[in-house]
Automatic annotation (TrEMBL):
<dbReference type="Pfam" id="PF02866">
    <property type="entry name" value="Ldh_1_C"/>
</dbReference>
<feature type="binding site">
    <location>
        <position position="85"/>
    </location>
    <ligand>
        <name>substrate</name>
    </ligand>
</feature>
<feature type="binding site">
    <location>
        <position position="34"/>
    </location>
    <ligand>
        <name>NAD(+)</name>
    </ligand>
</feature>
<protein>
    <recommendedName>
        <fullName>Malate dehydrogenase</fullName>
        <ecNumber>1.1.1.37</ecNumber>
    </recommendedName>
</protein>
<dbReference type="GO" id="GO:0004459">
    <property type="term" value="F:L-lactate dehydrogenase (NAD+) activity"/>
</dbReference>
<dbReference type="GO" id="GO:0006099">
    <property type="term" value="P:tricarboxylic acid cycle"/>
</dbReference>
<feature type="binding site">
    <location>
        <begin position="121"/>
        <end position="123"/>
    </location>
    <ligand>
        <name>NAD(+)</name>
    </ligand>
</feature>
<feature type="binding site">
    <location>
        <position position="98"/>
    </location>
    <ligand>
        <name>NAD(+)</name>
    </ligand>
</feature>
<dbReference type="InterPro" id="IPR011275">
    <property type="entry name" value="Malate_DH_type3"/>
</dbReference>
<feature type="binding site">
    <location>
        <position position="123"/>
    </location>
    <ligand>
        <name>substrate</name>
    </ligand>
</feature>
<feature type="binding site">
    <location>
        <position position="91"/>
    </location>
    <ligand>
        <name>substrate</name>
    </ligand>
</feature>
<dbReference type="InterPro" id="IPR015955">
    <property type="entry name" value="Lactate_DH/Glyco_Ohase_4_C"/>
</dbReference>
<dbReference type="GO" id="GO:0006089">
    <property type="term" value="P:lactate metabolic process"/>
</dbReference>
<feature type="domain" description="Lactate/malate dehydrogenase N-terminal">
    <location>
        <begin position="5"/>
        <end position="145"/>
    </location>
</feature>
<dbReference type="InterPro" id="IPR001557">
    <property type="entry name" value="L-lactate/malate_DH"/>
</dbReference>
<feature type="binding site">
    <location>
        <position position="154"/>
    </location>
    <ligand>
        <name>substrate</name>
    </ligand>
</feature>
<keyword id="KW-0560">Oxidoreductase</keyword>
């Protein structure tokens, strides 16, 4: 079987770590791309990672480049290019800079890998993935954002820590945008099949949800020089795996919703089936009145951000 070709644009913390996880899982051959000003850095990281392969026992060819020609005809392209926030900043503060970077990356990907499935990671996520859709004109099933796998993983981690149980037994879902308005779904949270509210009171659950909402900022505050990358890269790798191995995973992703959930043409975190065609299905749940109200608030925040981006890119 032919190995998948996976390009990762942005060979910084998230990009290089994603290359690491993808190689370790033998998901395909990997091309790490960064800007010309980065000079030989992507080549250096790729060679270093390649030299881990005899020890770790993976067969993946990993190369680094600053030229899109080397990425031609990729099956999957992960976009991590852009700046990360520092303490005191919100993700939305990255909008102006990253909209330009991500727009130019999308233009190049459109030319060189017209059949690729694109996973966008750069922030502010929900606006950046919309930008990639606008610039590439790819069908929306092939332009997806990574946020929900990470946010749900944080939520599951905090629940496992709280309850002193294995992470393997925690099943959960968060929806909405990748920000303070993300929507927890207690009805979709269970531990070993037991509904979460039988194990934890509503007040404590709300505190855990609140920590999850601020999970990115918590890491920024600890690192001080940038933002999280191990868990974000692992989350992205799970999406790459779902696509290249046609796993049909049912996981939360930022997907383009029009009529779905009444969103009206924006990217927002929803449960999807992810396989070799990208988003193969958006799974529509019946939301409670409260969940509906919270979801609408989240969609409104995404819409505001996308409108602000429209003004910036057309200025
Ligand atoms: N969606 C999520 O869950 C999530 C999680 C973590 C980080 N992020 C976002 O991912 C982005 C990257 O984070 P990071 O920690 O890897 O940052 P980083 O600074 O370590 O790496 C970013 C890399 O992008 C490169 N780059 C900049 N412009 C480029 C261009 N035009 N083409 C190619 N490469 C370019 C930089 O040279 C740098 O190497 C940030 O915007 C961050 O906010 C999102
Ligand atoms: O918080 C950030 O700025 C990075 C990322 O979106 C995260 O949630 O870790």
């Amino acid at each position: 079987m032919r190995r998948a070709k996976i390009t990762i644009v942005g060979a910084g913390n998230v990009g290089a770590t994603c290359a690491h996880w993808c190689a370790a899982a033998e998901l395909g051959d990997i091309v790490l791309l960064d800007i010309p000003q980065a000079e030989d850095m992507p080549k250096g990281k790729a060679l270093d990672l390649m030299q881990a392969s005899p020890i770790m026992g993976f067969d993946s060819a990993i190369s680094g480049t600053t030229s899109y020609a080397d990425t031609a005809n990729s099956d999957v392209v992960v976009i991590t290019a852009g700046i990360a926030r520092k303490p005191g900043m919100s993700r939305d503060d990255l909008l102006g800079t990253n909209a330009k970077i991500v727009g130019s990356v999308a233009e190049q990907v459109k030319q060189t890998s017209p059949n690729a499935i694109i996973i966008v990671v750069s922030n502010p996520l929900d606006a950046m993935v919309q930008r990639v859709l606008q610039v590439t004109g790819f069908p929306s099933n092939r332009v997806i954002g990574q946020a929900g796998v990470l946010d749900t993983a944080r939520y599951r981690t905090f629940l496992a820590m709280e309850l002193g149980v294995s992470i393997e037994d925690i099943s959960a879902l968060l929806m909405g945008g990748h920000g303070d308005t993300m929507v927890p779904m207690p009805s979709c949270t269970s531990v070993g099949g037991i509904p979460i509210l039988q194990l934890l009171d509503a007040k404590r659950l709300e505190e855990i949800v609140d920590r999850t909402r601020k999970g990115g900022a918590e890491i920024v505050g600890l690192l001080k020089t940038g933002s999280a990358y191990y868990a974000p890269a692992a989350a992205t790798t799970q999406m790459v795996e779902a696509i290249v191995r046609d796993k049909k995973r049912l996981i939360p992703c930022a997907a383009y919703c029009d009529k779905e959930y009444g969103v009206g043409g924006f990217y927002v975190g929803v449960p999807v089936i992810l396989g070799s065609d990208g988003v193969e299905k958006i799974v529509e749940l019946t939301l409670t009145t409260q969940e509906q109200a919270d979801f609408k608030k989240s969609v409104d925040a995404v819409q505001e951000l996308v409108e602000a981006m429209g003004k910036l890119v057309n200025a």
